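Re-run with default settings, no changes from the original entry. Doing this only to confirm the output is reproducible before filing.
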Amino acid sequence: MGADLGFFAEDRERDFPELNKCPDCETFFADDCCPLCGKECPEEFRAGNRKEVKQKKHRRPAGNGRVQFVPWYYSAWFIVLMLIFAPIVGIVLMWNSHWKKHWKIIVTVAIVLFHFFGAYLIGFVDTLFMGLRGEPEPPVNLELSEVDYRAACTTLDAEALYRNSKDYVGRYVRMECTVTGVASSYYYTQEYEYFTADVYLCKIQIEDRILEFFVMDYRQENQARLAVGDKITVWGEVAGELEGNTSHNGISIKLPSIYARFIDLQ
């Protein structure tokens, strides 16, 4: 609806083309002189001589003035959660939400880049963090001298160790066995610290039965690689049961394991 007679919006300039106008008082009148200040109306401000006043375009406020309720699944907090835990769902919700277009583009590009390069970034940060921490210590006792370490190792019953290795975790052990295969060359502890070590599959034969063990090679000196068929004497600590993939069949198996600080070829 239009404005009532005598009412002017704040963004409109007042003008009556059929009347004269005083440039000082901005008063409209039909006589030659302004009724307020008494000055004669200049020729350029008389009716018919004034330039047409261009009205400013009235900008309507966004919305219709009514409160609009946003569905909960278009709420910012829910979209952010979906972008973290279900990126595809989060992107779909975001593009159908009230978010500004430039934010939609930025977030989408960031998620796509992280999808393709995130693994490399995480690996780089993990490598950098491990480098700052320094090389982790191997899971064998390095404080004891070689003489004291060997003296602390005792010969345990192989069958008892095989069947109940968890009961002997941390025990110093001396064991004679034969190398039958090579397993994975990496092992990690419960603290997620990585230790590089050669892992050998070894056997002990008792009459007609064969007992198999994993031997983790943590020798600090004389780290000559072992070969299948080598008969060795292991001086180390019981690690419990560990899982590894053997080289001869690639099957993942879990066996009692020994952290070896010293290994002697027979």
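The longest strand covers residues 231-245. The two ends are 107 Å apart (CA to CA).
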